[in-house]
Amino acid sequence: MLKVGLTGGLATGKSYVSARLAELGCQVVQADKLGHEVLRRGGEAYEDVLAEFGKGILGDDGEIDRKALGATVFPDPAKLAKLNLLVHPCVFARQEAFFATVERDDPRGIAVVEAAIMIESGSYKRYDRLVVTVCPPETQVRRFVGRGGTEAEARDRLAQQMNIDEKRAFADFIIDTSGTFAETDEQVHGVYETLKLQAA
């Protein structure tokens, strides 16, 4: 089994690429989805995050309101680091369970984990191969705003992430998503074919 990390900057098309890889036959999990699960009431990180950041991050239903949590931590690097310290070990444990399942069910399979800050956190070292999605910063901002965020929020988040050109240096494969969907799909297919050979 080949362990593949998929990362990139804000709104660089990670989720689009992971969806295409899944269609081609990869086993894919999103670290963000695992993060949602561990933050749910009863999840592994719920109590610790609530104790650290207070009841102001809760919605009316008693669940952690991710928007409120984000508004609390993203402007403050120290708070963001603390949140990551509480959440990441729980997410990594779920990733290991995912790998174990893929290894058991498909020993020559390709297990892909999509995560935003894989390089910044150092967790990219856990993978056999690293795929990085890239596009120009102005495209990142435009996409983020198109999803309902503000330009100021986009630029704040970009300022806290490693520059996309720096991320390129860590990549085994780079997928440029700034063109058409068809152009991106062609790159994804090429990467998949190489990964399939390496997994076998």
Gyration radius, rounded = 17 Å
Strand content: 5-15%
Structural class, judged by helices and strands? alpha/beta
pLDDT < 50 runs, ≥5 residues: none
What would your notes on this structure say?
The protein has a single domain (2-199), classed as 3-Layer(aba) Sandwich (Rossmann fold). The protein contains 10 helices and 5 strands; from the N terminus they run E-H-E-H-H-H-H-E-H-E-H-H-H-E-H. It has helices at 14-24, 31-39, 46-53, 66-73, 77-105, 118-121, 137-146, 151-160, 164-168, 181-199; strands spanning 2-8, 27-30, 110-114, 129-134, 173-176. A 5-stranded parallel beta sheet has the order 2-3-1-4-5, with helices on both faces. Helix 1 (14-24) crosses helix 10 (181-199), helix 2 packs across helix 5 (77-105) and helix 7 crosses helix 8. The longest helix has 29 residues, at 77-105. The radius of gyration is 17 Å and the shape is globular. The termini are close together. The model has no long low-confidence stretch (mean pLDDT 95).
Topology, pairings included?
Elements (H helix, E strand, L loop, with lengths): L1 E7 L5 H11 L2 E4 H9 L6 H8 L12 H8 L3 H29 L4 E5 L3 H4 L7 E6 L2 H10 L4 H10 L3 H5 L4 E4 L4 H19 L1
Helix pairs in contact: 1-10, 2-5, 7-8
Summary of the model, kept short:
The chain has 200 residues and is α/β, with parallel strands linked by helices. The chain has one domain (2-199): Rossmann fold (3-Layer(aba) Sandwich). The protein has helices at 14-24, 31-39, 46-53, 66-73, 77-105, 118-121, 137-146, 151-160, 164-168, 181-199, and strands spanning 2-8, 27-30, 110-114, 129-134, 173-176.
